[in-house]
Design a protein that fits this description.
The protein is built from eleven helices and 17 strands. The chain is α/β, with parallel strands linked by helices. The strands form four sheets. Strands 3, 6, 7, 8, 9, 16 and 17 form a seven-stranded mixed sheet that branches. It has a six-stranded parallel sheet with strand order 12-11-10-13-14-15, sandwiched between helices. A two-stranded antiparallel sheet has the order 1-2. α4 packs across α5. It is globular and about 70 Å long. The structure holds nicotinamide-adenine-dinucleotide and zinc ion. The site of zinc ion has 5 residues, from loops.
């Protein structure tokens, strides 16, 4: 006799996710079986569903060329209850409420060796390269990837594994030059976390940019000092004037598409620091001479490491961070959840409660 679990799987790009039934796995060795209570719906799930990333000029980077194999169960923001453990597991017991660190690496490469598994050369991330949390149960390869919630709300905690974690790393990078003015582009799941984190860990005046006034209002409630709707053609001038005509010391772009990247460069001041995070895609032309003359820094940020996730959980426990969870779906509604996110109907984060 074995238990049946339901999982929502992407079988091919742009095809509706299908609910499949399979045998619930039995954890061996270091493995842990988690009964999924809540899983965040991230914009990256949409890229996985669409089959890749827009490189601009009609070019497309397929996720299958990066090692994704369909069918795959998406979902990398996983919170749940420990259902069963393998023989080697210690420190985690049945019934523990846990957040999963999904950015699993090979354990061997230079990044993994210093604890940055999120930057591994051969990543095995859950919900991307191996099955994730759009499922009744998730099999976690090693108990070391779990962190106990200890009182943090399960729905809110989901976003600390990806949107919060990514925002945290990006804001830390943006804070390296102690910005007086920090521009945050995109007030979605990541951007709203970015605003709260910037408020908590920097002394910067925060300017938040989006196309959607409702999201901008929320950004203001979360601590943005100024909000700018980039639909308005004079958005760059408005930002420049807030920044005393000199421009922003740091910009974090959670969209990172041609229109926002152009805005970033237009408002970045001399010695400025640009952190690119979004995977919306496309390409732009760069004025090369401007980069040395203004001595700007351009860097990418990709999720974060386990220790950062644990730090974030502590911030959430203290009430410093309050992830915005505006919508809840069940597993059968996963296609609607993804469509709603695509149609920009989600404020903050949506979660699936399988
Ligand atoms: P989201 O859909 O919740 O939010 C996107 C926001 O950007 C929305 O508020 C939307 O109104 C706004 N927006 C879209 N186009 C815009 C434009 N031209 N100008 C201004 N605002 C615009 O998405 P999310 O979950 O916050 O993810 C954002 C991006 O970050 C996605 O591409 C996602 O895949 C990526 N991501 C990157 C990492 C990383 O580690 N680098 C991690 C997670 C997600
Ligand atoms: Zn994500």
């Amino acid at each position: 006799i074995f238990l049946i679990m339901k999982s929502a799987r992407i079988t091919a790009p742009n095809e509706p996710l299908s609910i499949s039934e399979s045998e619930t796995p039995k954890p061996q060795g270091d493995q842990v079986l988690v009964k999924v209570g809540s899983v965040g719906v991230c914009h990256s799930d949409l890229h996985l569903w669409e089959g890749g990333y827009d490189l601009g000029d009609g070019q497309f980077m397929k996720v299958t060329d990066r090692g994704v194999k369909y069918p795959v169960t998406p979902g990398h923001e996983i919170v749940g209850t420990v259902e069963d453990i393998g023989d080697n597991v210690s420190g985690i017991v049945k019934g523990d409420q846990v957040l999963v660190f999904p950015w699993i690496g090979c354990g061997e490469c230079p990044a993994c060796k210093v604890g940055n598994e999120n930057l591994c050369d051969a990543p095995k991330s859950m919900g991307v390269f191996q099955d994730g949390g759009y499922s009744d149960y998730a099999l976690i390869p090693n108990f070391k990837y779990l962190a106990k919630l200890d009182g943090v709300d399960p729905d809110a905690a989901t976003s600390l594994a990806c949107s919060g974690l990514t925002a945290y790393t990006a804001i830390k990078k943006a804070n390296q030059n102690s910005p007086e003015f920090l521009v945050i582009v995109g007030a979605g799941g990541l951007g709203l976390m970015g605003v709260q984190i910037a408020n908590a860990i920097t002394d910067a005046k925060i300017i938040c940019v989006d196309l959607d006034d409702q999201k901008l209002n929320t950004a203001k409630e979360m601590g943005a000092d100024f909000v700018i709707n980039s639909k308005e053609s004079d958005a760059p001038e408005k930002i420049m004037s807030i920044c005393n005509g000199k421009g922003a010391d740091s910009v974090v772009d959670f969209v990172n598409a041609p229109p926002t990247a152009k805005l970033d460069f237009a408002v970045l001041r001399k010695r400025g620091n640009l952190v690119l995070v979004g995977l919306f895609g496309g390409s732009i032309e760069l004025s090369l001479v401007t980069i040395p003359l203004k001595s700007i820094t351009i860097q990418g940020a990709y999720t974060g490491n386990y220790d950062d996730m644990v730090e974030l959980l502590a911030l959430a426990r203290k009430g410093t961070l309050n992830p915005v969870i505006s919508k809840r779906y069940n597993l059968d509604e996963c296609n609607t959840a993804l469509e709603d996110l695509k149609a920009r109907k989600i404020l903050g984060r949506a979660v699936i409660n399988p």
